[in-house]
Every structure is written in C-alpha cells, then in structure tokens.
Amino acid sequence: MGFFKKFFGGGRSIDGLRKAVAQQRYVDARYLAEQLSTQPLEEGESAEVEELRIAAGDGLARLNLDEALGLQSCGDYSQAADHLRLAQEQVCSAGLRKDIEQALAAEPLEAEIHVAETDKARSCSSCSTQATTVLTDDEAWFGDAESQLELVLTSYPAALAPRYEAKGEPFKEAFLMSHAGQDDLALSLWLQVDAADQDDLYDFELGALYARKGDLEQGRSMLESALEKNPELLLAIEALVPVLVANGDYPLAEERLQQFLQRGIDPSFCYAQLTNLHVQQQQLDIAADYARKALEAGTTDHRFILLAASVFEETGALTDAEKVFKLLPASGCKGGVSLPLAEFWLRYNRELSIVLDTFNAACRQEPDNPRWQLRVAQTYFAKNWVKDGLKILRKVVNDPRMEADLVAEAEGLLVKYHG
Fold it and tell me: Which InterPro entries does the entry mention (predicted)?
C-alpha cells in the first residue's frame, strides 16, 4: 500500500466505492469518488470511478427529489424547494435533471409559499408533524459511524481492521474525523483518546496527522514511537520515510530504508523510496539503479512507473525507459498506446502514425485539454505536415488553459516554423 494514499488523505479504494454504491450509501460513494479522482488511476479504473460517481450523484438527487415530491403533495413547499435545490447540485444524468426541473416548475411563487405554509398542518398531518432533513453531504457523512469505519478500513491492510474495530469510541471518532479531512477537530479528539488505546496504531494515526498539518518534527516523533512499539507496522514505515525526505533528512531516510531492507520489509516500497530519495538529490545514476531494483521487486504504482521511466530517459537508458513506459495501460483508442509512451515516442520521432492516432483520440476524450491539441500539432511537424501543424498551433498557443511549459513549447515552434 503506497504511503501517499494514507499520508495525504487518500487511500480510498475502488472496492470501497463499489460497495458504497451497491449499499446505496451515496454520500459515502460521492466522497470516495472525489478522493479517487485526485489519485493516479488506470484508464479502466478512471472510467469506472466516473460511472460510480454519476450513480452516487443521481442516487442522492433521486432521494431528494422523492422527498420533495412528498413534501409538495403535503403543501410544504419551502422544505420541498430545499430538497430540489440540493438535488440540482447532485444530479448528473440529463433525464433525472429534467424531472427535477419539472418539480421545480411546479413550485408556487415565493409569495404563495407563506400562505401554503400556514395551512400545511391541515393539509397533511403525516408530513406536517415531523421536520424533514435535507440530505446534505456533510451531515450524512457521519450519519452511521459503523458504516464509515467499515468503509475507511477497506483501504487498510485487512489484518489491521479487527484492531481498529476493537478500539474505543473516542479513538474511532478521531479516526473518522481524520479521514473526513477535519484535521483540527481530529487533533483535539486524538489528544483525548484513552491511554489504553494509545498504542502503535494511535501513534501512527497521530503522527500522520501532524505531518499532514505540516508539523514534521511532531509527525516524525510519533511515527518513530509507533515503530518502537511495533517494528513491523508497515503503515508507519511507509509514513516515516517521506516525512524524513520532506524534512531534508536524506542520510537518515536512507539509513532507515537500508535497515528495513536488511529486515526484509517491503523491498518494492524501500527501493521505490530510495529511487525518489536520490532523484531529490539529483543523483540520477544511483536513482536509476534503485529504480531497476524496485521494478524487479514488483513495484507497479503508476506514479513510480512514470518516475522510473523519466529517470531512465534522463540518464540515457532509452531502451529501459521505453520498456517501462510500455507497462502503462493503453489509451482508449483501438490500437493506441498510453499517452506517456506516445509523448516519449514523439520526442524521438518514432511510431508517428500510432502517436497521432493516440493524441487524436485524447483530443476526442478531453476536448477541453489543449495539451493534446498541441501534441497533435507537434506530431504534424514531425511528419513534415507543417501547414497543418501551424493551423492547430495558432489556435492553441494563446489558450489560457495551457500550462506555462506547454506555452513555451508552442511559442518555440512558432518561432521555428516562422508562424
């Protein structure tokens, strides 16, 4: 399990998202989908996350629409309007959005609502005697602590789940607040946890929280404490090394990683971290050696694959770089390759027909992303189709969505081809 999934508030699993949608825990699912969308995913996974996000949004919207329709039938137009406005924010599909808009159109004018409200007790006692609650995301997130705990633990090692489940309520409350991103409140709750629950897991969670808040010294101290109590706690091992690196403690970070390797602890993680450690210090030849060991140990993390390929390319090991880029899944177009591999080939004027197909497909899939339009233009230039390349280049060079490095590439091409 990659540390960054834990340390930076990620660690959400697609399995957990699937489970939340299947159990109709749509607020949980929406939250998980948002978290997963910020993480590197394979193309198939990205598509599934998007489908599940839509299902969750529509599920919430449907609940609020149904509630609104019931309230309208009882004459409670003010509450119904609240539900409908929230449904508008949550809905994803066009058909359901139309249903919501029709329900909104059936709402009385604001001046009429007050009159209707005064008569609602007489119109429908079943809905006038109880207050209805709008299904907001924040309120629903902590509606069922047991379900939330189960959901979060899907992203933890299975062997640790029973230990977390056996904790006292103060520990669980602090734990859930941490994973909801409520760091300040979570910290105050962690500091109130009973002494009996202040074990290695407590030290890990509190250390990760301190580090996430930027207090690296406190974070390091708590994570070291966790490892003193349980030297085999992989979560704390994965958390400690990036804290040391972030704090500039490179020699100590390498020392700890070598110690972990000597004990046989997670070689793929250790070699990947050693790669990153030496990249940070611009020691790319050493980084390349560790990258090879990490790959041999079975590292498959998407971000590491990109890092390793970049290191190989920077050190001139182009065959190794291409081999690693090929580990990435192909883009959606038939016969296409991954976008990073296509960009690699473009840099060396290779496989240009496949490259062009891949970038054209990316333009269709992400029409608002000028990066791929620029890449198409660059491929045209590589194929000596200068006129076609300039035509696209002039359209994208001033696109405000272009990142600075891409703008520099585009401007350089305009100068080169006298555009």
Answer: TPR-like_helical_dom_sf (IPR011990)
Q: Is 213 helix (H, G, I), strand (E, B) or coil?
A: coil
Beta-carbon contacts of residue 123 (< 8 Å; ≥ 6 apart): 74, 75
Measured distance CA(239)–CA(203) in Å, rounded: 11
Report how far residue 406's alpha carbon sits from residue 144's, in angstroms, rounded to the nearest whole number: 47
List helix spans (H) across 74-160: 77-90, 94-105, 110-118, 120-123, 125-128, 137-141, 145-153
> What is the C-alpha separation between 259 and 241, in angstroms, rounded?
12
Rounded CA-CA distance 245/222 in Å is 16
Which DSSP state fits 314? H
* Range 268-291 average pLDDT: 94
Q: What is the pTM of this model?
A: 0.64
Residue with tokens 């190794």: 320
Q: Higher confidence at residue 386 or residue 133?
A: 386
Give 205-239 pLDDT, tens digit per residue: 999 999 988 899 999 999 999 999 999 898 898 89
At residue 39, the pLDDT reads 64
Mean pLDDT of 369-380: 94
Retrieve residue 249's tokens. Answer: 């403690």
CA distance linking residue 400 with residue 406, whole number of Å: 11
d(CA 226, CA 281): 28
Distances (CA, A) of 88 to 52, 55, 135, 275: 18, 14, 12, 47
